[in-house]
Amino acid sequence: MVSDRVLIINGVKFKNHNISDHSIATRGESMEISIDVGEIGKFVGKYSLGRDNGENSLHFLRIKIPAGQIDSERLRKIAELSRKYGKGYAEVTDRQSIQLHWIDSDNALEIFERLYEIGYTTDMCGQAFSGACMGDVRNIVTCPLSGKISEFDVSELSKRLTEFFTGNPEYLDLPRKFKIALTGCGGDCVRLGINDLGMYGIIHNGERGYAPFAGGSIGASFPGPTIAKPLGIFIPESQAFEFVKAVVEIHRDFSSRESKAKARFKNLVNKWGIERLREEIERKTGMEYERIEISNPKPSDHNGHGIQADGLYYYTLPVLGGVLSAEKLDFIADMAEKHGSGEVRLTPEQNVTFVDVSDVDVLKRDLSRVFEIRESKLRYSSIGCASNFCGKTKEPHAKDMLQKLVEFCESRGVEDVSIFISGCRNACGCHHVGEIGLVGRAVRAGNGVSQGYDLLYGGSFTELKLAKIWKEGLYGDDLFREFEKVLEVVRNGAKTEADK
Fold it and tell me: Which CATH entry fits the domain spanning 381-492: 3.30.1330.60, 1.50.10.10, 3.40.50.12500, 3.30.413.10?
């Protein structure tokens, strides 16, 4: 029997349902442990360092950028943090956060204080906990052009939810992390189907609201890669906050705590089914939602440039793999002020979108002083994870392999495909839903072990379709030979035996 434990830090209660420590609590008893940690209590439940195991980095810092929206002043302050604590290196993640590496834990409180001053927090990385506990709501992926190309500004809901869940002790002991995505641009630009909860903004009978998708996650946890299922209900915009809150609470209260492998929300959705999940949501909210039929969201991206609702323009700068330097962050901030309102939007494809631009050509001319601008689907829509830092791969790491394959495609005049690369089966690079996907694995080669990759094809997050395996355990020249074959299949729409 596991003791029910309540930890009180600076008067705030954190209830942990899944830790048994017999040196502190008698078996089967409940107890409260009260700690006054003084001023640093403001960091509790809001700030955390993640664990690295590569490139001589022991810790990373993943800074949540609510709705992916950041102004030039804050961008410069993150550049400062990168320069002082992270060797001047930064990454835009595919959840619109900014990640720094080589963080010394001795500097953690100093870094957290700086983030606190500028109003940013971090993901609560639960790597230190072996059990199914201490999960949090991760940065909410949001349409990068919310409020710019239509009146449906889903970023307002995203920011409200972020403020509510961040540091809220009622939601800091989820069985595992919980991922949410929101879009209101009329299409899917945020990979709705691979999130625990995807909220697809629609207009239904003249009213703005959402068609929710639940139970997506393409990592290796039980029951394996899973595409979210439509709930078949319409959530009016005014009720969306309470709806999302209820779904997170269902995950908190009912998802398995038996093990990390079984604790993701997709496992509960798979076990319960959509009908029971709907019933539980309606019970919690006290609402009966209108049943609707919803087709798969149509593809959407905000690459290149386009016109905003106010007549100004947006422009998306391709940043392959999301890799930036502190100097480039400063330069982006300068360009945002010079050519727009001083705000940029980070995208789920690891790019940077400038908004409120009066002259796109002049902006691009200035950007080309620092960036080599190649505007192709290949460079805009391909993503790679940071496997070199987490220690999940040897060379070539995911981002290195992405660069090599992009150059391979360009050398053959191919620029109309996207490539998603993950270093391991945790699927941080979303390889299961890429037109072409790769996932790293160790491969025996001669007397040693080489870095290899499984090659997949035919995935689509908008069609809610998982990719199929082409060949496994490829490395060296064999990988490039097979990649060229699958490239031809994907581009020509040819069918293989697996498709027939």
Answer: 3.30.413.10
